[in-house]
Write a structure and sequence with these properties.
homodimer, 451 residues, alpha/beta, 2 domains, 7-stranded parallel beta sheet, 17 strands
Chain lengths: 451, 451
């Protein structure tokens, strides 16, 4: 089947799903859960093939340890938690049919804005095989069709999971072509041209992958390329909170996009707060790259950190770098405005935090910083769909339209305006004799099922 | 000033506006209204210069009559209604600061999703000079900065209006650079590259203009290229409604994007309904292009229409054409499914209508048609921000993300997640001894002013 055919089949499948009830979509998710349970051994055998190849590449230095780890579906409860994820999505409220605007335009002329699926999604990701299952669940729950493109490292796992999903869908009312899988890299560039059929691209992967996709398509792209988060230690920061929050934001999972990369500290608390912050970081193996002012204070307080090479001078590029590792850079600022300006210029609009006991300063920071997440006294690591209470996430968006921050089911929906009339024409409205005026009164309906 | 500087200034202006109150933004709108009142003669003199050039081009056949008409600010109440538009926008509720998700993650850890401005808008439009004032009002009200690029036909009017706006802003707290104007066509292609500073492009103009913009930028584009709306006359259509709705949808303003271009009619009401529908259209000067089945019925009933050349055979391209004129094409279908399929394949996802007294059929149509507006027994011409009750509109979007259909102030906003903690770190949550669980309880706040 050509890629154009795949995309057209996906579009047709999207049309068919629109006619299904919430129960019918949920039933498909239950069937996927059941099939995953039955096929566990098969899938893990396929994953073992991928892992053997990956371990060879690891030994040859051609694959990173962290990628190799992400590929592995066999560890502890990973398979079970993937399965549970399908049920978790199934148990979320239906995101479709909600009315967000209802207006009586005139007697017998009612307008409703109703949430509906976006259409055909193209999801491009790298290693993790379980993403196939996560994204499939979210797409079906939200009434979208999806074309999935995974990394070649996980080909066997990916095929096995795809077979499980197809088997489940064949028993459900969701058409088989609602979830399709493609492999080679060439296919991506061709799919990116099919804006007639594909409504939204969601890339999950490296900065390079995302940038490359954005440069090569007219289809809207939702996601994030870089995650450069900052924490600002304000002059009214509580010392214990500053130490704990910077430490957790950096070390809880340094490779995550919501880990902190830059710490800004106010001049007036440099002597009082910075040594303790630095000590805690360095004790956890973090390399701290400082501007001159912060280096002087830290080096004096922690000569052993200078000796061990963990305390360093920063270079200008550090303030535009997502380290994704146990490294962070530090800059001293003189004011809240300077901190906000630095973040808006160098940050990636992902998640930024102020540490302060001063409410007015916190409000100014949260209003002034242009980011998907603006935090007051909380770790940047909270930027996550599960922690936000969405159940799960499709990804995190640093876009400034449609969905921003962790994207759950709602990020996969849009709305349509439904107008119910009794033959009204526009020519009857306006000014002058015999013309009607609009009423524009709010209506109470909250769900399309009430209409 | 280079274009990059213009864009950077706009970004800075956006940051400054975030700190302003609703009252301060409204005050700027009042000042613009006042200055427009004072400068009426100056602006109309500038418009006369544009009109003189336009009339010359019109005489030489280099400009269309409709474009010439759109340029003219001097006719009847056009200037006053432009002025009134500024006050109308001022009087709308503030779109910023609304909370659409509020969740207690844990004791003392509260998450709010708060509406905020998108950033820097680039609005590209063709003739109408009053668009400068409309868009400026909407941008300021919603806390965005805007770079405006108008057509060269309206250069003088545009400069005059721009001076009025700058004079007004210089007396307000909104920075001057929040509204900037650029002229030449070259500038557009350069601006489209500045994705670092510009957050959203809104083109208002021809299909060619919009397509060209989409092909040349990584910045998200909101708007519509084509407006190909369809009306389906179902087998249970009321005859009078069918005649009136098709007629209004076509003739009320044929150049509008929400005018109907294709009429689908069910086989079973072809004999009973189609002659009257056609007669009413032809009496209003519409050219009706029919497929074989509908031609046979109409030609038999209306031999005079054949003689006058207003009743014609359609060609296959007609069903993909936005005529923007007193022309429409007709196709006979055998079922509701066939009508839905035709619309999803040939329509532009703008606005489509079913005429029927059958509720089940109407619901199937409104669920199955993938368009910004799905109508039941109402003219497609209702697709408009004012008629929808938004006060005014920035444009109409056929996009399937962010904003769809008429875009008012809400379409110019996005949200940010604000998290208010007391030093919570992610490492404290999870499973195991001493770990905390998330509470995820809804919170009641509806506006950021309540926090």
């Amino acid at each position: 089947m050509s890629l154009k055919e795949i995309a057209r089949e996906a579009k047709d499948a999207f049309s068919s799903i629109q006619a299904l009830s919430s129960e019918e979509r949920d039933e498909a998710l239950q069937l996927i859960f059941d099939e995953l349970k039955t096929a566990k051994n098969q899938v893990l055998e396929a994953n073992t093939l991928d892992m053997e190849a990956a371990e060879k590449l690891l030994a040859e230095g051609k694959m990173s340890k962290s990628m190799c780890k992400r590929l592995d579906l066999r560890v502890s409860e990973k398979y079970e938690s993937m399965m549970q994820g399908v049920l978790d999505v199934k148990n979320l409220p239906d995101p479709l049919g909600h009315i967000s605007y209802a207006n009586k335009i005139d007697d017998g002329l009612e307008l409703y804005r109703v949430s509906c699926a976006v259409g055909v999604l193209l999801v491009i990701f790298e290693a993790r095989p379980e993403v196939v299952v996560n994204i499939t669940s979210l797409a079906i729950k939200s009434g979208n069709a999806v074309i999935l493109k995974g990394g070649k490292e996980s080909t066997h796992s990916f095929d096995a999971l795809s077979n499980v999903i197809r088997k489940a869908l064949s028993k459900s009312k969701v058409p088989l072509d609602a979830v399709q899988l493609v492999h080679s890299r060439d296919e991506v560039s061709q799919l990116l041209q099919l804006d007639e059929y594909i409504d939204l691209v969601i890339p999950r992967g490296s900065d390079t992958l995302v940038k490359n996709i954005k440069n090569n398509t007219k289809i809207p792209v939702l996601g994030h390329s870089k995650g450069l988060c900052s924490v600002y230690v304000h002059e009214d920061a509580d010392l214990d909170q500053a130490v704990k929050l910077v430490w957790d934001s950096k070390t809880n999972y340094p490779a995550a996009c919501n880990a902190v990369e830059t710490v800004l500290i106010n001049q007036s608390v440099l002597e009082s707060h910075f040594p303790a912050i630095t000590k805690k970081l360095i004790d956890s193996g973090v390399e701290v790259r400082c501007d001159d002012a912060s280096y002087a204070v830290a080096a004096k307080a922690l000569p052993e950190a200078v000796a061990s090479g963990k305390l360093k001078h920063s270079v200008v590029e550090d303030y535009d770098t997502e380290f994704s590792d146990l490294i962070l850079c530090v800059k001293v600022v003189n004011s809240l405005s300077e901190a906000i300006q630095h973040i808006n210029l160098h940050g990636s609009k992902h998640t930024d935090c102020i540490i302060t006991t001063n409410e007015a300063a916190a409000k100014r920071f949260m209003t002034g910083v242009d980011a998907a997440g603006v935090y007051w006294n909380a770790s940047t690591r909270f930027a996550d769909g599960f922690r936000y209470g969405f159940g799960t996430e499709v990804g995190i968006s640093t876009n400034k339209i449609h969905a921003r921050g962790p994207m759950g089911l709602e990020g996969l929906t849009i709305y349509k305006y439904m107008l119910r009339g009794h033959g009204q024409i526009v020519g009857d409205y306006g000014v002058g004799p015999g013309k009607r005026s609009f009423k524009h009164e709010p209506l109470p309906a909250k769900h399309v099922s009430e209409l």
